[in-house]
Write a structure and sequence with these properties.
Helix 3 (50-53) links the parallel strand 1 (38-43) and strand 2 (61-66). The chain is an alpha/beta fold. It has helices at residues 6-22, 26-32, 50-53, 76-88, 103-110, 117-130, 132-136, 141-161, 164-171, 195-198; strands spanning 38-43, 61-66, 93-99, 177-184, 189-192. The structure holds cobalt (II) ion.
């Protein structure tokens, strides 16, 4: 029912006024074009909102989110976002952001059943299978989940790098870097998870 979300319209009015009070031309300028430098691929989790986590204003980051920040080779939705970001918006950075405490990662790891989404989470189960030895060797359940969150980011960075879009961009000497980062919902801190993966300008074209 509309009354249930009435307060959201009220909040929106206050926010829009605050923005125009700071800069009367803000929305008019932004309406002409967007020039974000970053593409953010993150989890749909309500606690990991891209703009808020990296404190960027509207217009500064192009965003794709799905459950457990997965980049699937045949996902037209995600691939279209990457293509538009790289080829039309000319972003210089693609940021894959995972987060600790991810419900999708937990469900995949623990084998919980939720119906349709279990098929999506198969991708995470694959990541676990590839890194099972290292993950199982962790001292406790939380550390195992945390490591799976990190391994998932690393695998998704590789998936982004292997898309035809990123491969073509690098072939054309485009300035484009793919970064893997992880967000800690317990303290709000974002950090790079693997320096090797961060500098992927020369990522091999096959493999
Ligand atoms: Co999540």
């Amino acid at each position: 029912m509309r009354e249930d979300i009435e307060h959201l319209f009220a909040r929106n009015k206050v926010w829009a006024k605050k923005m125009t009070d700071m800069d009367p031309e803000f929305f008019m300028e932004l309406s002409k074009l967007q020039e974000p430098k970053y593409l953010w691929i993150g989890c749909s989790d309500s606690r990991v909102s891209a703009n808020q986590v990296i404190d960027l204003a509207p217009g500064e980051v192009f965003v794709h989110r799905n459950i457990a920040n997965v980049v699937v080779h045949t996902d037209l939705n995600c691939l279209s976002v990457i293509q538009f970001a790289v080829e039309v918006l000319n972003v210089h950075h693609i940021i894959i952001c995972g987060h600790y405490g991810c419900g999708g990662i937990k469900a995949a790891f623990e084998g919980s059943e939720y119906g349709l989404i279990d098929n999506w989470l198969r991708h995470i189960k694959d990541v676990y299978r590839w890194h099972k030895k290292e993950i199982d060797a962790q001292p406790d359940h939380k550390s195992r989940l945390n490591l799976l969150c990190e391994k998932n980011v690393i695998e998704q960075v590789a998936n982004v790098c292997h898309t035809t879009i990123v491969q073509r961009a690098w072939k054309n000497k485009k300035d484009l870097t793919v970064h893997g980062v992880i967000y800690d919902i317990e303290n709000g801190i974002l950090r790079p998870i693997d320096t090797e993966v961060r500098a992927t300008k020369c990522y091999p074209s096959t493999g």
